[in-house]
# Entry
Amino acid sequence: MWADTEPWRLAAARRESADTVTLGLEPPAPFVFDPGQFNMLYAAGIGEVPISISGDPGQRTRILHTIRDVGAVTHALCATPPGTEIGVRGPYGSHWPLHTAEGGDLIIVAGGIGLPPLRPAIYQALRHRDRYQRLVLLYGARTPRDLLFTGELARWRGRFDLTVEVTVDVGDRDWRGNVGVVPDLIGRVTFEPGTATAFMVGPEIMMRFTVRALLERGVPEDRVFLSMERNMQCAAALCGHCQLGPFLLCRDGPVLSYRQLARWISLREI
Amino acid sequence: MPQTLEPLLRGHAFFAGLDPEYLPLIAGCAKNTVFPAGRFAFREGDPADMFLLIRDGMLALEVAAPGRGPITVQTLTVGDVAGFSWLIERHHRWQFDGRVIERIRAVELDGACLRGKCAADPELGYELMRRFAVLATDRLQATRLQLLDVYGHVG
Ligand SMILES: Cc1cc2nc3c(=O)[nH]c(=O)nc-3n(C[C@H](O)[C@H](O)[C@H](O)COP(=O)(O)OP(=O)(O)OC[C@H]3O[C@@H](n4cnc5c(N)ncnc54)[C@H](O)[C@@H]3O)c2cc1C
# Structure
């Protein structure tokens, strides 16, 4: 699968938290992607994994991927020294429907490692800020130490045209922000449910409860979009590994609307 | 003459939609209060015979854990209510420390006074119970979600 692709060069690696690293990869030629898409990254001799692109879509010569070290391949990728060549194929998958959201409020909800796949959409929305009414980012993590992109969050929080609410499940004395779960943030922010569009990535349990909170406030089902980052293998709609109901998530997803997913997302054992 | 607290009660999310005829009754058990940052609004184990309708500021519910220092399990802010122990039989003690992160302005309601009014007027009692049941259920669900540790290590 790699024979016909030129490797990318790891230009820089930045530690975001104890288990998460952002890789800045240089493609052999300028690389175009849409917010929400992912690449398949190959760790030599170990294997290949889907990883969302976490950088600015306007930046085409250094492509960011933010990776949480959870197993063999992600561990190898997180430990790769700068200068190394890495196999990359992509971009794959559907993207965040930023056009659908235009004219109304845009609510972006991230949990844990779910912030990186949403960051390109945040950059894009900020670049075209006048196309949206309110722009709201709700982000939750396990503890303050697990928060990603903290410098950027602080800068975003300082803007008058972006509402940022961050919460952690468990806090300590040094943490002066919210402690509580992400679905509870939905009730705390001001937005117009009738015109709002929501983009969401996080652990599936968090997403299910957050969807409920959004629907209860009156956001229509077809304006709630989720990225389903269940595991996949070929990314080419061949192996069936990532099938969810009628969808092959690598081809039809990862971004799908809740209306499409509602029947499948809460079924057990799929 | 002391200022009536009815407008503050009416304006707080917790009493949204309450029959206005109850407001003077409830206001009779209420007082305005302020807690400066860094102080405790209440301490775990102390008798809990009041609750707070938070109007402004931020309060952390903390529990002391040996060897780990205080852990914050929840923060409360504008529109939130702190404390339902006062209402529950045999539970009239604070379960957590309430540390003030940002100066709190709140309406404090006297538990014994309100219990007396609820006993005299079961309709008011039912109204309050209904509101606290919603609050307690929301808290319970949030706590369950926290316990699931959804961001924890996969696998
Ligand atoms: C479209 C898509 C985008 C993704 N984007 C990112 C990203 O931006 N950053 C990132 O860190 N990860 C992302 N992931 C998840 C990442 O692909 C997996 O963590 C990775 O495949 C694990 O491989 P491994 O060999 O390191 O661990 P493995 O040994 O394969 O797995 C380690 C543990 O993690 C569990 N696991 C593996 N994959 C997943 C998954 N997708 N969801 C939940 N649990 C899983 C396994 O069951 C196992 O318990 C994405 C996944 C998909 C499908």
